[in-house]
Design brief:
26% of the residues lie in helices and 24% in strands. It is α/β, with parallel strands linked by helices.
Length: 454
């Protein structure tokens, strides 16, 4: 069922949306072309209207207003658009022995050793005191420089190679090389006091600051109000001689975010109001003003309810939330034949197996899970069987190996039916992740069908 147009658009989305801000910007651009409007421009809403609400340029909710009363609930596709990465610290720039570095703080669950010796790019914004915002994207164009984190050569790595994988690359060593200077020994070095040497300004750092000033009008102090993310440089690519797979950064969870918002863009007249929710901060616990743990979703819904003919009431809002059905559109770990002992094969998801249903996530004894009701799952099975969509039932891995969570439990607190449903990913949380084109297509078809659920 591979839809090559869909796949090409998906790869473009991965290339253009390597940060939450870039994803939201891309989604708004595509949504407006499909007839969605910023809700702030609408004083009233009726069936058939399509609107969106965004928060701080890092979270967005899209609504296709249905013919049914809003208090009877909505069909919601909920995904997250943040991915593991490195964030730049607020006082990051320094020089050490003629190399200039950018100090970083890793974001989300990463294997730190996977981020060294890779070509990396810098994406984000620098907000200046005069109110202007400088958009930064360096490392993606063929003419751009890239950046890198160095590692020890194997000849000198005897001690490093004996350390645990979690320890031999530390968080504080994940600093990005920005440039270099030329070592020059001063003739008077032997006679200088150490205090005099400290007073000398490092010339290589000054050269980098000069470039930042000339090209971006960025001063060193502007890093204090910047949001800069370090991500793998390069585009998503077809993987394998048969081109059946996709290798790309951020497929957790942009594979589900893309297929979810694509489904609502192409949704026509619906009975139940359709909603696509793309939120931030899932990788660090769904915290903050743009995470699912905030009131963003219910505040966005309140804006919709207030513009409908029946008018706003708290009871209408609460009834709507309790009567919703939601697919927590999040990825699952694909079965890895090279590490098969980590999986219960009978309860694992496979690449090319179709969209994955996770009745529960969490870790070990289902800690942190949202456990879906079987009645809801049965309705979805019937819907997808009728639509000819391929799906598989799975867990993340063996019970005592660990686990993970999604935004499902944060939606379930409203009393709605929620099921995790997403794409299988191999090498999840690595700088480059692997998905199957077939699964992207099946997820899209599943999400489209779900928005017709009555």
């Amino acid at each position: 069922m591979k839809n090559e147009n869909l796949i090409n658009d998906y790869k473009s989305f991965l290339n253009d949306g390597k940060t939450e801000r870039e994803c939201v910007s891309k989604i708004i651009s595509l949504a407006e072309k499909a007839g969605f409007q910023d809700i702030s421009k609408c004083t009233s809403l009726k069936a058939g209207d399509k609107v969106y609400v965004q928060k701080m340029n890092k979270a967005i909710a899209l609504f296709n207003v249905g013919t049914d009363k809003i208090e009877n609930g909505m069909n919601i596709l909920g995904a997250h658009i943040d991915s593991p990465r490195l964030d730049v610290k607020q006082n990051p720039l320094y020089e050490n022995n003629f190399l200039v570095y950018l100090n970083t703080h890793y974001y989300g669950g990463i294997k730190k050793y996977q981020w060294v010796t890779l070509p990396l790019a810098i994406h984000g914004v620098v907000c200046k005191k005069d109110g202007s915002v400088v958009n930064v994207c360096v490392g993606e164009s063929e003419d751009d420089p890239v950046f890198c984190i160095s590692d020890i050569l194997p000849h000198l790595a005897q001690k490093q190679m004996k350390e645990n994988a979690s320890d031999f690359i530390t968080g504080e060593s994940l600093d990005l090389i920005l440039g270099s200077g030329i070592p020059e020994k001063d003739k008077d070095d032997d006679n200088e006091e150490k205090s005099d040497k400290k007073d000398k300004k490092p010339s290589a750092k000054k050269a980098i600051l000069s470039i930042l000033k000339e090209k971006y009008q960025i001063e060193e102090e502007d890093f204090g109000s910047a949001e800069l993310e370090i991500v793998p440089a390069g585009k998503a690519r077809d993987l394998g001689f048969d081109r059946s797979l996709i290798l790309g950064y951020g497929q957790d969870d942009r594979s589900c975010a893309f297929t979810s918002f694509r489904a609502i863009l192409e949704s026509g007249k619906v009975k139940k109001t359709a909603c696509c929710l793309c939120v931030d901060k899932e990788e660090i616990g769904s915290v903050g003003a743009t995470g699912m743990g905030s009131h963003f979703f219910e505040n966005a819904l309140a804006e919709v309810v207030a513009r409908l003919p029946e008018g706003y009431s708290e009871l209408t809002l609460r009834r709507c939330l309790a009567n919703c059905s939601m697919l927590s559109s999040d990825v699952n770990a694909a079965f890895d034949p090279q590490n098969s002992d980590l999986f219960d094969k009978d309860n694992a998801s496979f690449l090319n197996g179709g969209i994955v249903f996770n009745k529960y996530t969490g870790s070990r004894g289902k800690s942190g899970a949202s456990d879906a009701n079987p009645e809801f799952i049965a309705r979805l099975r019937g819907l997808l069987d009728k639509a000819g969509v391929k799906y598989q039932m799975a867990e993340l891995g063996k019970v005592d190996q660990g686990g993970g969570g999604t935004i499902a439990y944060l939606a379930a607190k409203y009393g709605m039916n929620v099921l995790d449903a997403g794409v299988s990913v191999l090498s999840m949380h690595a700088p480059w992740e692997i998905t199957a084109k077939e699964d992207i297509s099946q997820a899209y078809e599943a999400y489209k069908a779900f928005l017709t659920l009555e």
